[in-house]
Amino acid sequence: MWIFPILIIEAIPFIAGFNKDLSVSSFLALCFFMVCVGIFEEVIFRGILFQYLKQINLSTAIWGSAVLFGFGHAANLLSGKSITLTIAQIVFAFLFGFVAAEIVALTNSLQWVIIWHALHNIVDQTTNGQAPMAMQMLLLSIQCIILVVLAVVLWRKLRMKS
């Protein structure tokens, strides 16, 4: 059930268009790197950190891993991104991390969130960089709204499960 909203979230950036300046070799290298980043971040945040915090309780694991994942994206400021876009990305990353942690809690597996994270990174790197700031913020806002709804639905499902 949670796969369909995620597919919608990942389709939204294509409204802004695809970066046609990427060569095939650049695209393949980008895909490889984004898959590696997705694996690394998921093992750290939803693997090691989530499991450590889960010793306290599941709620702490979900909230804690999501908050730390969100704040970790403040590093985008170092790459020269605007404060507005960085704050929006921190909010998105928190919501992404929250839903990803819920999926891990429901499935007891990292595989789905690694796939989602890698796919998201590839989509993000090949679409929204060419769009005007207003368009990027609108698309990010729509994605965040969908993530909030999905987070609430999954939270209720987790509460019923426990």
Shape: globular
Compute the number of helices. 6
β-strand percent reads under 5%
Q: Could you give a short account of the major beta sheet?
A: none
Distance between the termini: 19 Å
Structural class: mainly alpha
Sequence stretches where pLDDT stays below 50 over 5 or more residues: none
Residues in helices, as a percent range: over 70%
The SSE order reads HHHHHH
Mean pLDDT: 92
Total number of distinct structural domains? 1
The number of E-state strands comes to 0
Rounded Rg: 16 Å
Provide an overview of this structure.
The protein has 6 helices and no strands. With 162 residues, it is mainly alpha-helical. The radius of gyration is 16 Å and the shape is globular. The model has no long low-confidence stretch (mean pLDDT 92). Helices cover 77% and strands 0% of the residues. The protein has one domain (24-161). The chain has helices spanning 3-11, 24-54, 58-72, 83-107, 111-126, 133-161.
Task: Outline the secondary-structure elements.
Blueprint: H1 3-11, H2 24-54, H3 58-72, H4 83-107, H5 111-126, H6 133-161
Helix pairs in contact: 1-6, 2-3, 2-5, 3-4, 4-6
Brief sketch in words of this structure:
With 162 residues, the chain is mainly α. The protein has 6 helices and no strands.
Kindly list the characteristics that best describe this protein:
162 residues, 0% strand, single chain, mainly alpha
